[in-house]
Design goal:
Blueprint: E1 9-13, H1 20-34, E2 40-44, H2 47-57, E3 62-66, H3 83-87, E4 93-96, H4 99-104, H5 109-122, E5 125-130, H6 134-138, H7 142-153, H8 159-162, E6 166-169, H9 183-201, H10 203-208, E7 211-214, H11 222-226, E8 233-236, H12 243-255
Parallel strand pairs: 1-2, 1-8, 2-3, 3-4, 4-5, 5-6, 6-7, 7-8
Helix pairs in contact: 1-2, 1-12, 7-9
The structure holds phosphoenolpyruvate (PEP).
Phosphoenolpyruvate (PEP) binds next to strand 8.
Length: about 260
């Protein structure tokens, strides 16, 4: 990461884990662990834990995010949650377009784009996930896939708003599989994302955008991944569910 240009952001993605009592325990364990972190610390939790998380993290340096948001303000969208519903309870971040949403719930670049714009309009900071499938990497079209996702997901997003947006590069083959991209692979694609942003918005804007790596980041590989100049933090699944592991990642982002 380049700390002169950007603040690192370490965000946990709890996915569909933790009942309310379990969430309370984990948050209490995270507070002392996160206290000295100089990076931005975010936990993205299931809807049922959002209010608890906001309440328990008041007065700490831990920010709360949701794992999805709908693009309409209200209406007949059973099972969905709007951006205003999130901001009114104090949520600040939201993950959009995670590969699990794309894979299991038919999320497309078009809906990712709509959700991103709705989040920004409501004052939420979106964490927009992009990443190639293993098959696409093997066919040598990673850059084409990523460029297409960036262009479509950020279509009609202003330069001002893109600076409030975090891009998470998450190679789909590395999520929850224990297979991490090498630090070279992570840097190559995060650097390519920055180049793509520079073509769309200019270098100055691109240099200010936080680009995370996500995909089996853990206490063993975090320092090397976070030492790459274009890797400005991480979106963390499995390792965000244990306070001690998450703490090692926060230390790596703070000291790196
Ligand atoms: C994720 O779900 O965003 C993720 C990166 O998961 P994991 O760290 O478990 O691979």
């Amino acid at each position: 990461m380049n700390k002169e240009l950007r603040k690192a952001v370490i965000a946990g993605n709890w996915k569909m884990n933790k009942t309310r009592p379990e969430a309370k325990t984990l948050i209490e364990e995270l507070k002392p662990v996160a206290e000295k972190a100089t990076c931005e610390v975010v936990i993205c939790v299931p809807y049922t834990n959002l209010e608890t998380a906001v309440e328990l993290t008041k007065g700490t340096n831990i920010k709360v995010g949701a794992e999805n948001v709908h693009f309409e303000k209200s209406g007949a969208f059973t099972g969905e949650i709007s951006a205003d519903m999130l901001t009114e309870i104090g949520v600040e971040y939201v993950i959009i377009g995670h590969s699990e949403r794309r894979q299991y719930y038919g999320e497309t670049d078009e809906t990712v784009n709509k959700r991103t714009k709705a989040a920004l309009a409501a004052g939420l900071k979106p964490i927009v996930c992009v990443g190639e499938l293993l098959w696409e990497r093997e066919c040598n079209i990673t850059e084409e896939v990523i460029a297409r996702q960036i262009k479509l997901d950020l279509y009609d997003v202003s330069a001002e708003d893109v600076q409030k947006t975090i891009i998470a590069y998450e190679p789909v083959w590395a999520i929850g599989t224990g297979k991490t991209a090498t630090s070279e692979q992570a840097e190559e694609v995060c650097g390519f994302i920055r180049e793509t942003l520079a073509k769309l918005y200019g270098k100055e804007v691109a240099d200010s955008v936080t680009i995370q790596y996500g995909g089996s980041m853990n206490p063993k590989n975090a320092a090397e991944l976070l030492a790459q100049p274009d890797v400005d933090g991480g979106l963390i699944g499995g390792a965000s569910l244990k306070a001690a592991d998450f703490g090692v990642l926060l230390d790596a982002a703070t000291n790196g």
